[in-house]
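Wait, mind explaining this?

_____
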Amino acid sequence: MLSPLIPVQPEWLNFLALPNQEEMPEWLLELIKVNDSNVSRLLDQFIDEPSHHQFGGIQDSYQMATAHSVTAFLKTGLCALLAKSSDYYKDPELLEKLSASANFLVKVQHEDGTIDLVTTNFHSTPDTAFIVKWLMPIYRVFLHSDLPDKQSLEEPLYRFFNNAGEALVIGGIHTPNHRWVVCGALAELYQWNRNQRYLERAEQWLAEGIDMDPDGQYEEKSSYIYSSLSDRVLISTARGFEKFNLLEYVRKNLEMTFYYLHPNGEIVTEASGRQDNSIVATLERYYYPYRYMALRDRNGHFAAACKLIENSVFEKASGFLYYFLEDTSLWEELPPSKPLPTNYVRKFLHSGLVRIRRGNYDGSILLDNPVFFTFHKRKTVLQGVRLASAFFGKGQFKADSFEEKDGVYVLSSELEGPYYQPFEKGEVSGDGDWSKMPRTDRKTSEVQKLHTNVRIKEITGGFEMEIDIAGTDHVPVALELIFREGGELKGVQPYQDLPETYFLSGEEGIYEREGEKILFGPGRQEHTWVAIRGALPKMNAPTVFLTGFTPFHQKIQLK
């Protein structure tokens, strides 16, 4: 018999028992297979000694057993336990280990219902919400399964969710996306237990309005991690609370993301305001929202995005298997694909980004960013262009103004380097304490100025940059062309003092990988000082430098 803690579920709730599993589509069977390998890996980290104080925990890469590491096992293991094609389907040994892990999860849950993200957040409501959103969909499937002896797992998870719900209706957040993660978790709980407090709390957060700019991007501009996350949890909120107007935000972000795609299927991350800034990232985190919206809207462009993921990085989508086991309507055939845009100029000025795509290559122009340009082909990537001067230790170029003139994109900055005069008599502190005589209160003289102007335009097969730096003379300058690892540089001269550091002094350099080339030049080398004071450290990547002194004028083409 079930424990009295386990409520009888109303008929109107959307629980699934995975009917007709023999009809699972091939793509879903593929995800289940990958999920099985993840179960196997996590089992290797399972703490299986009953007398151990962390029995049932999963050791992470730092040899810590945490709420998050055990949640990864619970989510992955439940999916395997319930999917008929899994090697672990109805496996009693796996069920026993999952039960121990569920009890461990309850053990590390605080009395207030929260858990810790031990790397930074303690008694954390938003991190509790993350765990609820990961586990509740597959838990609802589990509740309506015919697994034997499942009470040992059912009861501790019930206690966890019930206590977590109490935390979610009163707890606070840190970041913009945390609001929607909490709402999504409350909506998942609401499908399990129609507690009106869940709805009321979500409506408090939703009343603040969704943080989407006119371009279709969320506040954090996190194109890999948090934009896709916001899409997923807003879908959960829309479904759970029947607030389907929220899907318009999801739709708008998914459409915008088409224009963030590089020719090789990666996505632009350089404009992100979070930890995914400038990482190499692909589209797998968007698979669930693209599939959900493709089927709901019968949208061929969204379907094409799904196919792109399936044909490139689908294995990485296995962490979202629980969505597809919980909602069997997602098993339906996608509508016919429509081509994704590959020839465009799009400005996302709220994100400080201009995107230019021409078939098999593209360029990204970035405002207020030390990486102000990138150039991508399918196999070869110039992952950043940076510019620095030794101007008073603050010469790392970041555009503070932007304009477009007849197809030319102009990035500019103005710097000043003043000197400071003595205080007037009667204004000196009298005790020689420098901090009591701030430079901001001193008169300035001999003010040096530096004006930097970068003009970028399209040319046949690529782009041309024209750089002008003027004002104070004889200031050392270094322009960096930062390429991705894995290719071969030709026509450049290695700098023996630093690894992966090169100069271009001739007319043209070549970066080649698997038969594809990026041509760049002409070059310039007037000195070998590349670690300029005040500049950012060199990236851990093959980097070609062009060097000179102000007044500095240089054109360089990228093809």
